[in-house]
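Before the break, one more example. Copy the sequence into your notebook; we will annotate it together after we see the structure.
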Amino acid sequence: MFGLADRIARSAIPHPGSAPVIPLAPHGTVMVVDRAPAMLALVRAALGDRCHIVVARDAEELLAQVGWARPDAVIADAGLDADELDLVSRGLATLGCDSVPVVLLDPERPVGPADLRRIADRALAAGRRVWMTSGLRSRIAA
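Here is what the structure looks like once it is written out:
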């Protein structure tokens, strides 16, 4: 019987005639909250091949979709009204998604595709940190 370390080591060694490994699913689901169509198009272009993207135009649309989308991270426009940001926070907590990392993008600071990929990767990695204690699972975002 071989352990996980053996399987990982063997899978890292290329074998003649073996097919390349192709990921079957995206690395996670990112929900993007923004009213600007240009920003949504930039996010889709930058992250479309890395993760599943769900778009919401405001806090109410986010809360309507979060139940079926179950995002691993939320990227939102920091230019949203304070009431909307509060609604997002309280709504995620009510729906059991209070441990989902929420990243606010400053509308005054330019963001390019590489920046978006870095932000999404870090948010998804923070959301995947899972600790098992006494049979209870709690997600901790750093």
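The longest helix spans residues 113-127. DSSP finds five helices and six strands in the chain. Try to locate both features in your own notes.
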